[in-house]
Design brief:
single chain; alpha/beta; Rossmann fold; seven-stranded parallel beta sheet; five-stranded parallel beta sheet; 37% helix; 19% strand
Length: 308
């Protein structure tokens, strides 16, 4: 009834809200900007997540953040009083490793990213190279003619967030990806992270650089790509028709829900707000319509009153 209407949840009658709460068995939630912000839990978020678990609902933290392993996310979640288990955490570093494993990949991966990715690759026995700084010290000609050595064992390029991203890394990645037999994987395509005093380019900015130079598109394992949904169905048996996706970014979180047939809930503690949704509702572009959530709340903690 409320599919992609951008309805303010608290405007509904109590009975309708109760029906909504009872309409899903599985909750997928983004992390940054939804349940926590940096190292602090958002108000009421642990109570809501823990109450969902007490009600018998499956809960998964689904994050496009590729800088940490699932174990590292679990430590953070426990410190912030979320009663989640390791199986309830799905990160893009984990998904990238699982994708390569599903392809029976046995070569080496060139990684633009951080330790989160390589530790997840280690966990499934996949060799890797490329992590850490790689700078242009003696000029481009010297790098290309003397320093650049292509590893014949590399059969995949994996691109995630990398604070050491550089021109030499771009050269290496697109040179490997120039081979059509080389797998080309991106953790996510989040464009940017706006802060109060600056904008931090996101993984999507790095991915687009490599895609442009390689003249091919990466396979994206993170939101809004359905691979995340396929993994959850295969490993945990979730029912898309009884799943709720909660997020703060409509072009990843809500679009994942749209792509996978989930119900969707936008919280306004992160990137997108009700004003954005209103603009998309007025748009005649069908791609904009896909970004519209079913429901909107100011913050996740607002749900607590309806869960008792």
């Amino acid at each position: 009834m409320y599919k992609q209407t951008g309805t303010r949840l608290q405007s509904l009658p109590q009975e309708a809200i109760k029906m909504f709460i009872n309409s899903f068995d599985t909750v997928l939630t983004d992390c940054d900007g939804v349940i926590w912000l940096f190292n602090d839990a958002l108000q009421g978020a642990p109570n809501v997540i823990n109450r969902f678990l007490e009600m018998g609902k499956k809960v998964f933290f689904v994050t496009n953040n590729s800088t940490k392993t699932r174990d590292e996310f679990l430590v953070k979640a426990k410190q912030l009083n979320f009663n989640i288990s390791r199986d309830g955490i799905v990160s893009t570093a984990y998904l990238a490793a699982q994708y390569l494993k599903s392809q029976k990949f046995s070569k080496k991966a060139y990684v633009i990213g951080s330790t989160g990715i390589v530790q997840e690759l280690d966990a499934v026995g996949i060799k890797h190279t490329g992590i850490g700084p790689d700078v242009l010290t003696n000029g481009l000609a010297s790098f290309v003619n003397e320093e650049l050595k292509r590893d014949p064992e590399v059969g995949a390029v994996v691109v995630g967030f990398d604070e050491h991203f550089s021109f030499p890394k771009l050269i290496r990645a697109c040179s490997y990806a120039d081979d059509p037999e080389c797998l080309f994987i991106a953790t996510n395509t989040d464009e940017r992270f706006p802060l109060a005093h600056c904008v931090i380019p996101g993984t999507g900015s790095i991915v687009r650089c490599v895609e442009t130079a390689a003249e091919r598109k990466a396979f994206v394992v993170g939101k809004p790509n359905p691979f995340m949904c396929e993994t959850l169905i295969r490993e945990h048996g979730i029912d898309p028709g009884r799943t709720l996706m909660i997020g703060d970014r409509c072009n990843t979180d809500i679009l994942l829900g749209t792509n996978c047939g989930f119900q969707t809930l936008l919280v306004e503690t992160g990137i997108h707000k009700e004003s954005d949704v209103e603009a998309w509702l007025k748009s005649k572009d069908p791609e904009d319509q896909k970004l519209v959530p079913d429901f909107i709340v100011s913050k996740l903690g607002d749900l607590l009153d309806y869960l008792n």
